[in-house]
């Protein structure tokens, strides 16, 4: 699971707008916005898709809540 803070940090680190993340994850913009505003946690498949989009771009989430980026960057 990723938190709203991790989502915002990962998106900022990749310089992605909310709509870019939504498109890459195949989820609605409202899903990303709701997660980042702590309004609601997306359903399992949507949250997994968001995480998978970040991981495909080289982002790693640690158990202690950190957000790590691959060296050299793999983001598009």
How many helices in DSSP terms?
4
Per DSSP, what share of the residues sits in E-state strands of 2 or more residues?
A: 5-15%
Compute the CA-based radius of gyration.
Answer: 11 Å
Q: What kind of assembly state do the chains in view correspond to?
A: single chain
From the N-terminal CA to the C-terminal CA, the straight-line distance is: 24 Å
* Biggest β-sheet strands, sense, barrel: 2 strands, antiparallel
Q: Quickly give the structural class.
A: mainly alpha
Outline: globular
What is the CATH topology descriptor?
A: 434 Repressor (Amino-terminal Domain)
Can you tell me the CATH class?
Answer: Mainly Alpha
Overall pLDDT, averaged?
91
Give helix % range.
40-55%
3D structure, described in words:
The chain is mainly alpha-helical. The protein has a two-stranded antiparallel sheet with strand order 1-2. The N and C termini lie far apart (24 Å). α2 (18-25) packs across α3 (29-36) and α2 (18-25) crosses α4. The chain has helices spanning 4-14, 18-25, 29-36, 44-56; strands spanning 59-61, 67-69. The radius of gyration is 11 Å and the shape is globular. It is built from 4 helices and 2 strands, in the order ααααββ.
